[in-house]
Amino acid sequence: MRQDSAQLAVTFVLTAWICISLNDMVMKFLSDSYSLHQLVLIRSTVGLFLCLLIVQFEGSWRVLKIDKKLLLIFRCLMMVTTNLLYFTALVMLPLADATALFFVAPIFISILSSILLKETIGKRRITAIIVGLAGIIIVMRPLSAATNNIHFLIFFLPVAAAFCYALSQVTARKLGATARASAMSFYLHLTFILVSIVFGVTIGDGKYVSISSNPSLVFLFRPWEWPSLMDWPLLIFLGVLSGVVSYCVTKAYVLAEASFVAPFEYIAVPLATLWGWLVFGYLPDFWTTSGILVIIFSGLYIYRREVVKSKSSN
After folding, report:
1. pLDDT surpassing 80 at residue 2
2. Domains of the chain: which residue ranges?
């Protein structure tokens, strides 16, 4: 991998996950007022227009032609499933906890990229990834979860979301050989819109909301409501974030190996902790802070190793 490609990939993935952390914070904030599929529909509609602008910049409408259509559909559906599982869990879990659980994704990505893409993962990179996972365990402190009034299955939703996300990003690497990042982002938003409309038509009237008082299920089955004037700026902001995220994440995985890009996504954990503290009052304790520092160190170490490797190969 060229050093300039590695640096660009890091820039794109860090930008994406800063935006994702903001997106998660706003989604959690709005989850008490709107249904998940309504939020996704509005967010993706705004994001689609932003993607169209990027499409024009990257080569106009011809870039939307993609040869590997089945692979593209599979990736889009995996991303939709990722969002469905993750945001359903986010209603009940603290922001930092849900994000930390989701970050088994780099482990899945590294394994899948080795199996499906035949990428070589060095011992030092494997060690750094394991160190990052250890940091997540420190943040989570699984034994403390037993004291919370949260059904244990909720904790598995972000993990399942992580697996779907890993599949989608490994697929992006395969698609990136012939498809532009803007085109993949466009079709992803289009898929989100279509799926949200199907949800809206079938359950958007709220007829199933009384099935359970579980906050996650209520978030799924809540009826659609016309947003208040004060919420529209937040909804538009979600759309802008969505457009930036889908392009930057895709671009990062096109530019660099999945096993290299994935660990930098750990930046989302300290960011989620920060927003959870500032917005929702979840103040990180000593162990959470220690875990976050371990996670950051592992990502920076992997980047340093890749720079050294690039220089030695030139």
Report:
1. no
2. 3-313
* 220-250: pLDDT as tens digits: 899 998 999 999 999 999 999 988 888 888 7
Q: How far apart are CA 274 and CA 261, in angstroms?
A: 23
Distance CA 251, CA 310 (A): 20
155 contacts 145 by C-beta, under 8 angstroms: yes
Structure tokens at 96: 């930092």
- The CA dihedral of 298, 100, 104, 175, to the nearest 10 degrees, is -90
Handedness of CA 148, 151, 156, 160 (dihedral sign): negative
Which residue is associated with the tokens 């932003």?
50
Report pTM: 0.79
Tokens 């989302």 found at: 268
- Asked whether 311 and 7 are in contact (CB, 8 A), the reply is no
How high is the mean pLDDT of the chain? 81
Q: Which residues, in sequence order, are CB contacts of 29 under 8 Å at separation 6+?
A: 234, 279
AA letter at 34: Y
DSSP-derived secondary structure letter, 34: S
What are the angstrom distances between the C-alpha of 140 and each of 29, 208, 269, 284? Answer: 22, 33, 11, 11
Report the distance separating Cα 31 and Cα 196, nearest Å. 16
Q: How far apart are CA 161 and CA 140, in angstroms?
A: 17
- Provide the residue type at 279 as one letter: V
Residue 183, class by beta-carbon neighbours within 10 Å (0-12 exposed, 13-18 middle, 19+ buried)? buried
What DSSP designation does 118 have?
-
Say how far apart CA 205 and CA 116 lie, in whole Å.
Answer: 42
Counting beta carbons within 10 angstroms of the beta carbon of residue 296, is it exposed (0 to 12), middle (13 to 18) or buried (19 or more)?
middle
* pLDDT, position 186: 87
d(CA 182, CA 301): 30
